[in-house]
Amino acid sequence: MDNYQRFLQAFNELERVIQHRLKVDAKYNLGSLLRIAQQAHDQLITSHYKELDFLRNFRNILVHEGIQAEGEIATPSDFLIEKIEFITMKIREAKKIKDLFRSPVISFKLEDTLHDVLQAVNQYGYTKFPVFAQDHLVGVVTDNGITKFMADQLQEDLISIKSVHLQSILDLDKRKDSFMVVNEDTSIYDIDDIFTQKIKEGKSSFILLMARDHQVDHPDDITGIITPWNLPTIIENL
């Protein structure tokens, strides 16, 4: 097989992999796929936009101009073919957040107490806990909320942490809604993009709740928690 055939074979495989990732029919060519990826804010594909657009143009020239010239007008280099194969592999094997961050999550109910949370902090080392009212997610208790509550209670000689319910903590926690629910099949490229944007907005404590779907109706729906502290792991796996 010469490089002309190798290039077309590699290019067709690249299109199939992108079609599969975007969940679209085989009728969409690479130009259409790039537009769909942009509309879907697919960070993995759009990060290679210039390279993919070049390959698209090169392929069109190679095929259509070659037909008019009744022969090959250019010979794809080994480097170019290897580049296609590398991008194809990167898209096909892109890690999902569930591959890196799926772990048990400790959650609480509104009627649970500060004592319960502090015990979990001591036992597990976690500092962020989803809170539910029946089967409804109402917020996330953070170390910030706990610290704020304790500071506001300094005037009291004694605080009974067993009598302080989480509703009181959430009422003072400005970061209780600083989270987003994301599907556990989300690419780490998209997560990197989300955190980058939130940090630009000044939301450096923003967290992501990983779920089997895009919504959380029950504590068991949450399969992991991702924080900005996980960015080194994310970047390492890009």
TrEMBL record:
A Pfam family assignment: CBS
Entry keyword Zinc: no
Record carries keyword Ligase: no
CBS domain: residues covered: 101-156
UniProt keyword annotations, A-Z: CBS domain
Domain of life of the native organism: Bacteria
Protein name: CBS domain-containing protein
